[in-house]
């Protein structure tokens, strides 16, 4: 969690991704976070649409499980990823 917080403070260009459901996202999320639900079958295409590969990505969810999966997928897609662990 410390590294995640440091990255958010140090990198104004970081892309913040909330990988929870839309209903979870609307109940509250980090400032400037975009919602890309990891359980959505269009996760890959939405990531490509909303995220730039030349900027780091910070991912989070409620417990850390979904962000871990999303982080692995995004790394495989060529993104530099930081995860909030254990989640929010």
Describe it.
The protein is an alpha/beta fold and 88 residues long. It is 39% helix and 15% strand. It contains 4 helices and 4 strands; from the N terminus they run αβαβαβαβ. It has helices spanning 2-10, 22-26, 43-50, 65-76, and strands spanning 15-18, 34-35, 57-60, 81-83. The chain has a 4-stranded parallel β-sheet, with helices on both faces. Strand 3, helix 4 (65-76) and strand 4 form a beta-alpha-beta unit. The longest helix is centred in the C-terminal third of the chain and has 12 residues, at 65-76. The radius of gyration is 12 Å and the shape is globular. The mean pLDDT is 88.
Main sheet attributes: strand count, strand direction, barrel closure: 4 strands, parallel
The secondary-structure class comes to: alpha/beta
Estimated radius of gyration: 12 Å
The average pLDDT score comes to 88
Summarize the structure.
With 88 residues, the protein is of the alpha/beta class. Helices cover 39% and strands 15% of the residues.
For the structure shown, list the relevant keywords:
88 residues; alpha/beta; 4-stranded parallel β-sheet; 39% helix; 15% strand
